[in-house]
Amino acid sequence: MVAVVHKAVATCTEILNHRSAEAQPSGGCFSMGPLLPLLTVLAVVPQISLASHHPLAYSHRQHARAVTLPAGWTARGCVTDNPGGRTLGDDSFTDTVGMTVESCVTFCNNKNFIFAGLEFSQECYCGNSLLNNAANATSTDCNDACKGDATELCGGASRLNLYWSGRQPPPPPTTVPSVGLWESLGCFNDTAAARTLSVPAAVNGNFSVETCTDACFNLGYPIAGMEFADECYCDTDFRNGGSPATLADCNMPCKNNGTEFCGGPNRLNVYNFTGTLPHGPVAPPPPGGGGGGGTPVFPATNLPPPWKYAACFVDNAHGRIFQTELNDNPNVTVESCIASCSAQNQTLAGLEFSVQCFCGTTLVNGAVLGAEADCNMGCGGNTTEACGGPNRLSVYTALPNGTVPSLPVPVAKTTGLPTGWSYSSCIKEGPNGGRVLPNQIDFQIIPEKNTTIDGCLTRCREYGYPAAGLEFGSQCYCGDFADVATNSGGVAPEADCSIPCSGDLIHLCGGPQRLQYYKFSGTIDVWHQPANIGRYEFLIGGLVVPLVATVGINGKVNFLEKLGTGFPNSTGAYELDLSLVHDFDKAWRALHVHSDVFCSGSLILPDKSARQLNVGGWSLESTFGVRLYAPDGKAGVNGTNDWEENFNELHLQRGRWYPSALVMANGSVMVVGGEQGSNGFQEPTIEILPTPAGGPTWLFMDWLNRTDPNNLYPFLHVLPSGNIFVGYYNEARILNPKTFDTITVLPNMPGSVIKDDGGRTYPMEGTAVLLPQHAPYTDPLGILICGGSDFGQALDNCITTQPEVPNPTWTIERMPSKRVMPCMAALPDGTFLIVNGAEQGVAGFGLADFPNLSALLYDPSQPVHQRISILNNTIVARLYHSEATLLPDGRVLISGSDPQTNFPNGTVKFPEEFRVEVYIPPYLNQGFTQPSYTITQTDWAYGGSYAITVTLHQGTTANMRVSLVAATSSTHGNVMGGRTIFPAFSCTGNTCHITAPPNANVSPPGWHQLFILDGPTPSHSQFVRIGGDPGKLGNWPAFADFTLPGV
């Protein structure tokens, strides 16, 4: 018997619509292919396959060895499977020695199935539909070598390597209304202990409604019933209180005819014969050719040690007593069943109904002994051996003294739960196969064969979800109370949740289409909804869609955009004078770059002019580009400087697309990672600017090489030790700033609640900042990372860590909504504004959907899990290539969006966004007058004391604060050089003395916006330089066509 519950006919959209047999690194099923015609006959579900950020990104990945398939068959990647509800449920076989892709596909092809799948190195499954919410899986999950050919892949744990014939599937199964003179009576309940139809019948040939009704006709019975896909029962009347059940409960396709339903778990599809039977009822002959009053059968005795016969057990008295059922085998023997169980390291074997073999290490569901005479059916492959009977198992054991461990009847777990959790009830899944709770935990996190209530509840709580449900014994789901109220079909009888947990066999984990539902009673994450939420305002129309936004020390905003691959006639760079936004023509000044800065990296140097450095670019020479701009002019007055670049004189050692850059504590510039131009190979290296003498000095980093291409625009931060934090993909480490060797490998960054391989850097693209540092700088420094993607769904959390404490860990705080491609701007009061992005997809052109229009405020001064406030909304979708930048007046400039996303008919869905907005944070939305100050010394030495004269309007210097927000350049949500410092200060009257940070580890050399805060209200900033220019960047590069400001 193949116990496959037909929960829902999933569409093949996300599985078939992707490239064949490509091994994708670390997750996701990537597609650029067209939607296949067969999908029109299947119900549509959300597509989860995603193209990469450039079409050839994975063209150089390693492939499994090519196989020779029957005509029309192609590989379709790795998909999920579940023993409780198979993805392919029509036919199967196991070959523990010789399984190959060719043998499996040929087997399915010869039986006219359109899908074939291989699992666990030795199992082959066939079908005409992808069932039970099958979905794409990470290709590396399918990593088991085939038993018959180690160069081929044959799936993995609960993962299928899927193959497709290219043919259209048959219609989904239905309840057949009639077969000849047999009329359907619908679905009826049944139990093994008290059968509704009492006469089991052997079916000749393939199992279907037709063959079962034929068997009952030939035996002279007017009522026929099919159960569990391949069991046939007959009778003259309904017995033991058998009564109609919901038709949807009979949801298992017939074993050999996937177009018909043949009952379900403890459910019968019942048919009544309306004609004249050939004779009266007769006793059926026993299946398998033996026993039952014919040839006597006996337990097998000549077995390999230490195996021996134990006893005849009742099956299904309280549920199935074995957890693992092998495929039906008409030639099974006791010896072959034991051999299969031994190969799986199981110590118990059971045989039932002549052709069924079960394996396990303990019996479950309160197994009880049956009469030895009831195990009277001969094995299909040896009619003298006892192979159980109808709902009777001949059980053999390899344990000492013939021991057969048995666990009691499982019950719902109601005590000893993780703190805060309580059991609610057994509830129904949604109608039409809809899910109550949206987040199913991946089996890589909670193993399919080791699911427990505690493990599920702990996972949901950790990621901020107060509603948890378990189903099918091995599936864990997380969500919110609102999901249950909206989606559930209501409370179900407790008896419907009848499947024991795979990792805790004395407790129940739901049932078919039934959830064991648990609720968390405490508060996990608090999202404040303040009365003052700030607001968005339109600032000015733009000339281009900027990729890089940088506020210069002249108070103007420098925008860089694609040159040559962008808009016609663009010069690639423009400067916005914020004092002239009322006059469009005067507000914008054209600057000029000489190569394409598309997806380059930028920061502000610590030299006297606060030059803006831009490195890398799109292709060819531009990927080696090193560009410099010294901001000049002042409010209302244009400067005359422009971008300076000369590839022949100054360039990177390695071409880089999507690199990051950092000013280190010694004043040099570190450039990390990227790719070798558009669609190029990875560039897993680090180099230093100015380039050291002595030939090539770049360094290969294996951790970048290993995580390509999911590590672009890595997060870089100088730590108080002077060491360097690097965050890339879902990993993080601390580097020595002199050798760039790894000092510490940090724990992997958490992903989404459903799986751990979600990423935080491009193309998964979250955003990261350092948490504020406060004098005297003795507290550990924290890092905050928000958003990202798990290769399709955006992440809905922020994570924090303190990388230099002993045994650092990550703390997860759930956000109110999902967000990929967010932007985060540090505010002068120590909070962080989170804006922009999408709720689905990844970064890249046309790869994201459902814009996130809300703004959030993250306040690290509040307790963990209470730091997020929900602010205002915008009407402007800002997706790929959008930025958020703190302005000197305390507002945040919001710019860009270049998604290049169209509807299927070619019309624009999300436009390239020229409009520039500002966000007015709550501290400027109260009607208070901003404080002000004067300062004369703006070039600060470490530890020095510097005077300012302040003017306050609300409070006194007793409640005043001073903050230093590092001057940054922002692209793709990566704020390069970001840092917020609250220095020590003292005041006498309105004269205050600020103590500069003590060293370059606390505050690497560079420029900062200096703010004072009168209560909550910040002043306008002025720029100060801290730490000078120890790397002497002001004298670099020493070429006549570059303007050098000096150190």
From TrEMBL:
InterPro entries registered for this protein in UniProt: Gal_Oxase/kelch_b-propeller, Gal_Oxidase_central_sf, Glyoxal_oxidase_N, GO-like_E_set, Ig-like_fold, Ig_E-set, WSC_carb-bd
Hydrolase recorded as keyword: no
Keywords: Signal
Pfam families noted in UniProt: Glyoxal_oxid_N, GO-like_E_set, WSC
Residues of the WSC domain: 72-166, 181-274, 306-399, 420-521
Domain of life (superkingdom): Eukaryota
UniProt name for this protein: Galactose oxidase
Gene source species: Cristinia sonorae
Lineage: Eukaryota, Fungi, Dikarya, Basidiomycota, Agaricomycotina
